[in-house]
Amino acid sequence: MSESTVRIGLVLPDVMGTYGDGGNALVLRQRLRMRGHDAEIVEINLTDPVPESLDIYTLGGAEDSAQRLATRHLRQYPGLQQAAAKGAPVLAICAAIQVLGNWYETSSGERVDGVGLLDVTTSPQDKRAIGEVVTAPIVPGLRAPLTGFENHRGGTTLGPDAEGLARVTRGVGNGVGDGLEGVVQGSVFGTYMHGPALARNPELADLLLARALGVDSLSPLDLPEVEQLRRERLRA
Ligand code: GLN
């Protein structure tokens, strides 16, 4: 590994990573390598403290009990919070939005204090949201519709410091009636989209990578198979 190697933190894949969310780290690494950067994935498990020195971080979804373990670990070892404070991009999928928020209530009604990186709170809704979700991005730098697969019971309310990632055109999204999907606050991006999200949404991958590399934008990669996947999933 050289000094210029871009280091991608895959945070707690042993407890958070439903529906192949670990694939987001693979997508980031591959898109960096295709552009000639050295890139490595650093797995941070429940046995490891969380380093604050990595260039970009991804966290996946989880069942209620697993997400509680992750919450405790991230509060005990605040490397992710320190990295985000320095502007390192963070991608949080599904349960990870809830974990990084102010607090969340589990399906059994227990309230758990979160990491506090996102000004959001989450409570269980009457009905589980399951299926394809399609949205129109709000965030500058994203143009194409976003596509993913959602499966969550929690509904997430945004506080004043948080903004939505996109507006729902199909599916449920954050699930509290404001029509929003996902959340953005500083360098932290959250979404309910599994898929993995970055395999389906290359613009989002490149937005995060541009921030990790400290550049305004990256020229798109010409990958017909990704376009084919998007066409298929947007029709699904
Ligand atoms: N347990 C959380 C919920 O149901 C998150 C689920 C997930 O990450 N797939 O809201």
Task: Provide tags for this entry.
single chain, 236 residues, Rossmann fold, six-stranded mixed sheet, 30% strand, binds glutamine
In angstroms, what is the radius of gyration?
A: 16 Å
The CATH topology is what?
Answer: Rossmann fold
SS-derived structural category: alpha/beta
Bound molecules: glutamine
The helix content, as a percent range, equals: 25-40%
Which secondary structure elements does this structure contain, and how are they paired or packed?
Layout: E1 6-11, H1 23-34, E2 39-44, E3 56-59, H2 64-76, H3 79-85, E4 90-93, H4 95-100, E5 103-105, E6 111-113, E7 120-137, E8 146-158, E9 166-170, E10 180-181, E11 183-185, E12 188-191, H5 197-200, H6 202-213, H7 224-235
Parallel strand pairs: 1-2, 1-3, 3-4, 4-12, 5-7
Antiparallel strand pairs: 5-6, 7-8, 7-9, 9-10, 11-12
The structure holds glutamine.
Glutamine is lined by residues 18, 61-64, 67, 94-95, 151-154.
